Request: fold
Amino acid sequence: LQPTRSRTDTTESQVLVQHLITKKWSTPCFITQVGTNREYVIRTTSGTT
Reply:
């Protein structure tokens, strides 16, 4: 077994979100909450969640 990696995603980390149709990573967002199993609540730069 290999040791698990520590989580590096923290709140207010800037990330890109993939567009559903074009599949391009183009929408800049900020992580507002980190959940379990790679679940995140994000906020776009325009302020929507």
